[in-house]
Specification:
Layout: H1 13-21, H2 34-38, H3 40-44, E1 51-54, H4 62-68, E2 72-77, H5 80-89, E3 94-98, E4 106-110, E5 115-119, H6 127-130, E6 133-138, H7 150-159, E7 161-169, H8 188-195
Parallel strand pairs: 1-2, 1-6, 2-5, 6-7
Antiparallel strand pairs: 3-4, 4-5
């Protein structure tokens, strides 16, 4: 189907923050996503100690799981509440510091140092701030990004990836005439044109 009815839909940052404040977070998975477990070998590709990026991470439980497997995890999320809930729910001590390059942004980092979560707009990040990644777990980011911002999002993601990086992407398939999103419908042809 054509994503036409959703093309001009825009969800504001305030709407996302309100979802977190009112616990309207049906997209959060308490048990982690079965597709990450199923395709973990594809993401890791036999490598250990990877830097793995979680765009629009929320309080994804997979961040702790991958950190416990010895990987370094970096996430970005506009909701500070989501990030603080992540650390609280896993009883992980953390420290908070400003991100000098981004006005108003904070970095919440586990005291063990292997989980760093940035509280800011994803579009404020760059590889000069967060570095590059060996893997990306995009479970709910591309489908949450406003359709008009997809090209900007994909271009940013490409600049954050190392040469032989793995990008695991979860999308949803449905008739966009029946649901206004998010999650937004992203046709496979568009994924190919965005990421090549």
């Amino acid at each position: 189907p054509d994503a036409g009815p959703q093309r001009d839909r825009v969800v504001t940052e305030a709407e996302w923050l309100r979802r977190w404040e009112t616990s309207n977070i049906g997209f959060h998975k308490e048990q982690g996503h079965p597709l990450l477990q199923k395709y973990l070998d594809v993401l890791l590709n036999g490598r250990s100690g990877l830097r793995i990026f979680f765009p629009l991470c929320g309080k994804a439980v997979e961040m702790k799981w991958l950190a416990d497997l010895g990987h370094s995890v970096v996430g970005v999320e506009v909701s500070e509440q989501a990030l603080k809930e992540f650390f609280a729910e896993h009883s992980l001590p953390y420290r908070e510091e400003p991100v000098p390059e981004i006005s108003g942004a904070k970095k919440l980092q586990s005291t063990s140092g292997n989980i760093s979560l940035y509280c800011c707009s994803i579009y404020d990040l760059s590889s000069s701030i967060v570095g590059k990644f060996d893997g990306v777990w995009d479970r709910g980011a591309l489908v949450a990004v406003n359709p008009c911002d997809r090209q900007r999002y994909a271009s940013l993601m490409i600049t954050l990836m190392e040469k032989n990086s793995s990008y695991l992407l979860v999308t949803v398939s449905y008739d966009p005439n029946k649901h206004k999103g998010p999650p937004f419908y992203v046709p496979e042809s568009e994924i190919k044109s965005l990421f090549g």
